[in-house]
Amino acid sequence: MDVFRVVVDCGGVNAAADHLGISQPSVSAHLRALERQLGSTLFLRSRGRHNVITPTGQALYKYACEALLKSAEFKNSIKSFDSLASQSIKMAAQRTLGNFLLPRALGPFLRDNSSVNLHVLSETQLATLDLFLAGAVDTALIYGTPEAKEFGGSIIGTELLRIVASPNHPLAKRKMVALEELEHFEFVSTLTDSQSYSMVSSALKSSGLKKYRLVLRMQDPVAVINAVIHGIGLACTVSCVQQQAVDEGRLVVINTDPSPPPVPVKLLVRPEAPCREFVEALIPYLVEALRN
User: Taking the model in full, what pTM does it have?
Assistant: First the structure.
């Protein structure tokens, strides 16, 4: 809503992007997400003309201004109670990392650092980067995709990309499969406009699988895995999403030649973060979780 309000106040997406210090595609993504949630358009878009706000957009703008004002007032009212600010870590994590990697690292970390308070937001990669750039969080955990290079940070490890199938799949009993053979089989993937799809597609293409048949696209990687468990084709995902189902025998890893390259995992830390020493103390635990 804050991004939407700035778009209205600045008179357009490009001006809002400059004002917020984020990319134009990022601003547009926020607007599309709002429109999907509302089931209605916020602007009437046409080439060569300024976008015209719709009645839905006008109503949302009024609500956004009131809601954001109340939010700011609330934040100011609780500042005096935040006596542990220097020992609090505000983190944003790409959703898959936040759901699967972080819990493995945070258990032992918090046992060894009981005085630290953690606040973790699990978002899309785009939203995670926006929160970090806006200064809303002290640190961010993301996949080191080509699009993320400009944001700096440190690579703390890698995660495997693996192709999986149900135990009843024709390839499940094969010890090794030439990667190019997979173009004849059906795949399930995340949505084609998602960062996850872009990451997997790029990795498969760089390994030699130029094309493959997508029969189902789903928003959540866990939903993708569940579809494969129920016999709907193959899927290529990061290993943490599929590991439990593999251990339980509900999925089989398809070993390919060549195999997809691993995905770097990157940690971004704000230089001025008051909790920087605690974030640095967390890094070894994240590294160990990636190894496992």
Answer: 0.70
